[in-house]
């Protein structure tokens, strides 16, 4: 069986084949970007250490509910097709290892609080002095400038400051937080587009550049309609529960079974009449609809609604997604073997390239799994160097 380094350096295919990435990102917002590069052919080398591992390695869900540094499903799904090395970046001597990595790379990606990379001697000016063609992507919660630039924070604070919490929930209740760090899921879409634009610019001019992204600014893009309404009318949009202007009915309703729900919407009068007939109702009062759906199987009701032209969707659980006909028809999930977690299904890209198909080549790296292979076969160090680095505490 060919090792991971052979797969990424000599057998790479995909739209980003040949692209070389030094990945200092952590948590979610940054790794989601570099996952898209890795799953599409780039050679991505993730840098962390046992002293300072990526924080989501420490959070579940863990396979078989057994915690472990290499057992996080959260971490695994964001790091398919990446190589992983362990270097103690808090040691000033780490630059001896990192400098050839920067010389090798096309892209340096990081998602720390502003100032961390500078502390390590890896700010853009320093990187450019080493490699003039380097493109640096920096993603942080508040951006590198402004009064909050160096404040700590996570996605929950980011989405609140971007206005998401104020729009989510019921008007007579406190704001409801969307699942997880919502801004961490939004900002990578903008970051990836900006990074690709910088790479196109480099192809045209030979010049690298620094791309900076504020996760709050990226998330605020989702509230563009509400911002325009306020500016034009003075009306402050706020939490509206399930209500949707222009729809006769719009909401999520209970069905048979534990935590079984269905999302229903009737926009036209024809859809409203069809839904009334399906549910045996004279109108679409919310409580009456909920009472009627509570006795129905969610999937059967969805099929009946769709046949009648009524928009409907079961609120799928994670277990449902793995068996979903649409996702499986698109070959969305990729089964990959991990040394500690075994075979798991990983999320693949949500797009399809006709000429350069994506491919998840191998599972997420165990912490430090590829250190020696990268050090010798990519960065050109010998076994004596590695022994010295280990003795100095750099490789941990």
UniProtKB/TrEMBL annotation:
SUPFAM superfamilies hit by this protein: CoA-transferase family III (CaiB/BaiF) (SSF89796)
Statement: the UniProt record of this protein carries the keyword ATP-binding: no
One Pfam entry name: CoA_transf_3
Gene3D superfamilies listed in its UniProt record: Crotonobetainyl-coa:carnitine coa-transferase, domain 1, formyl-coa transferase, domain 3
GO terms, molecular function: transferase activity
Origin: domain of life: Bacteria
Keywords, ordered alphabetically: Transferase
PANTHER family according to UniProt: L-CARNITINE COA-TRANSFERASE, SUCCINYL-COA--D-CITRAMALATE COA-TRANSFERASE
UniProt name for this protein: CoA transferase
Taxonomic lineage: Bacteria, Pseudomonadati, Pseudomonadota, Alphaproteobacteria, Rhodobacterales
């Amino acid at each position: 069986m060919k090792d991971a380094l052979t797969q990424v350096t000599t057998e790479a295919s995909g739209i980003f084949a040949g692209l070389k990435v030094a990945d200092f990102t952590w948590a979610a917002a940054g790794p989601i970007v570099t996952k898209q590069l890795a799953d599409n052919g780039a050679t991505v080398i993730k840098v962390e250490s046992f002293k300072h591992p990526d924080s989501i390695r420490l959070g579940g869900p863990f396979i078989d509910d057994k915690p472990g540094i290499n057992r996080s499903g959260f971490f695994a799904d964001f790091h398919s097709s990446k190589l992983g090395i362990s270097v103690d970046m808090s040691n000033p001597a780490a630059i001896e290892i990192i400098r050839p990595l920067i010389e090798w790379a096309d892209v340096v990606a990081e998602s720390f609080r502003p100032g961390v990379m500078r502390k390590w001697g890896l700010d853009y000016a320093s990187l450019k002095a080493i490699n003039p063609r380097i493109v640096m992507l920096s993603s942080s919660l508040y951006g590198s400038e402004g009064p909050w630039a160096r404040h700590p924070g996570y996605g929950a604070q980011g989405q609140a400051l971007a206005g998401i919490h104020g729009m989510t929930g019921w008007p007579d209740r406190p704001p409801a937080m969307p699942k997880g760090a919502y801004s961490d899921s939004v900002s990578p879409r903008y970051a990836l587009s900006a990074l690709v634009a910088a790479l196109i610019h480099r192809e045209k001019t030979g010049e690298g550049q620094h791309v900076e992204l504020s996760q709050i600014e990226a998330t605020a893009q989702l509230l563009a309609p509400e911002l325009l309404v306020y500016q034009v009318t003075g009306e402050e949009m706020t939490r509206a529960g399930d209500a949707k202007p222009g729809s006769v009915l719009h909401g999520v309703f209970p069905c048979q079974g534990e935590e079984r729900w269905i999302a229903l919407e009737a926009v036209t009068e024809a859809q409203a009449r069809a839904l009334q007939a399906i549910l045996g109702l004279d109108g679409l009062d919310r409580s009456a609809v909920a009472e009627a759906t509570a006795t129905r199987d969610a999937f059967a009701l969805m099929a009946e609604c769709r046949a009648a032209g009524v928009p409907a969707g079961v609120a799928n659980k994670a277990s449902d997604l793995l068996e979903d006909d649409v996702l499986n028809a698109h070959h969305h999930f990729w089964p990959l073997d991990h040394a500690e977690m075994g075979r798991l299904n990983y999320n693949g890209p949500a797009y399809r390239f006709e000429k350069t198909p994506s491919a998840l080549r191998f599972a997420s790296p165990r912490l430090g799994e590829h250190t020696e292979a990268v050090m010798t076969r990519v960065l050109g160090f010998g076994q004596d160097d590695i022994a010295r680095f280990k003795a100095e505490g750099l490789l941990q």
